[in-house]
Amino acid sequence: MAKFFNEMTADGLAHTASAEVREHYREFCGWLQRQSAETIERKRAEADLTFRRVGITFAVYGDDAGTERLIPFDTIPRIIPAAEWKQLQTGLVQRVKALNMFIHDIYHDQNIIKAGIIPAEQIYKNAQYRPEMQGINVVSDIYAHIAGVDIVRAGQGEFYVLEDNLRVPSGVSYMLEDRKMMMRLFPELFARNKIAPVDHYPDMLLDNLRSVAPMGINDPTVVVMTPGMYNSAYFEHAFLAQQMGVELVEGKDLFVSDNTVFMRTTRGPKRVDVIYRRLDDDFLDPLAFRPDSSLGVPGLLSVYRAGRVTLANAIGTGVADDKSIYPYVPDMIKFYLSEEPVLNNVPTYQCRRKEDLAYTLANLPDLVVKEVHGAGGYGMLVGPASTKAQIEDFRQRLIAKPDGYIAQPTLALSACPTYVENGIAPRHIDLRPFVLSGKTISMVPGGLTRVALQEGSLVVNSSQGGGTKDTWILEK
């Protein structure tokens, strides 16, 4: 019997006749048992061919085998009943609201520091802290307009927040394309199951971005700003611009004049009011940040500081998704909202603390250790899956720079039946819902389910060999 929570069956068995299927999976499971292996394999091949034809790929930096890869797509959906989604949605809205209040606070009155809840050095020494934002007001006090919050399930099925992605969260295009693919391959499933739609996300995103335009702009011009076609998420940048019906621009397409941002067009300069930027702070403005950046717009920060353009997400937002700040989010919720957190954090050891470092060093084989600025599954140690040599190498890194790491227990992530080479087997998953903040906080019922395709692996990142699934939220 499996030692992890199985999304489909109560006894951990993936697909056998004796497995006790959870109620919200029964309709799908009955359909699945009636399908032949040949039919499913043919549908998988059709999905791969279509994704490749459409160009739904991602780039892997440093990959000599080629710049573009397909993200493996699995045809067994992850299904969440309405009541569970309601709890998740409530917790996510609460969390993102508190995070936005925190970012506003640290760039203004800094009440949470004065109250002694977060040490000042955790903010000021943070690599993502931007002193240039101190005292700058942004529209509606919203900094993280688009948040991708990673949710995992462990234990007896409890939900935990694994991390908050507030800088340039990616993956929503795969959520949308996975749904489109499932509807194309298996239309009968959508006729028989009440599955909440997600295809209106681009409309919600555009409405959200327009709602935070600078004061006095009634018909704002919105653009998506990309680093260019060699960025790992370029497909998504182009996809979202196309779906929203707005221009996809690079830094070279924009310029600053009269303290205003303009876009070069065939009809002459056009004012830009809202920039959904998909590149990091450091590259936005060579006059303010990295002088060697050829990706940004000289003078952009001065226009931004004057309140004459909105950047989504705001400059300096990354301070709130740093893994060294993550342990304080429950305290933020209590401090700013006077509420108890709906969603729990994973227990976290901050290696900058002497006692936490000592515990981590003594228990490395059992822990997951992450770089506080790391992303994409890189720069981390999964103790139970590591060799003695890897553990000892990481031990030296920890001793050399303890404030660069956090540690967490190795969670037995929930699993969902997944098609693999030898049939159907459980594979570990997570979930990234996307939360939009503007005049209101909203989200589509769903998210990107990522799956670790290697047996026993807990790393779901696409750059580390993970795949994706469609996420069904059942309507009552």
Automatic annotation (TrEMBL):
It comes from the Bacteria. Coiled coil: none annotated. InterPro entries: ATP-dep_Glu-Cys_Ligase-2 (IPR051680), CP_ATPgrasp_2 (IPR025841), UCP005522 (IPR016450). Residues 77-452 form the Circularly permuted ATP-grasp type domain. This is Circularly permuted type 2 ATP-grasp protein. It comes from Duganella rivi. The lineage of its organism: Bacteria, Pseudomonadati, Pseudomonadota, Betaproteobacteria, Burkholderiales.
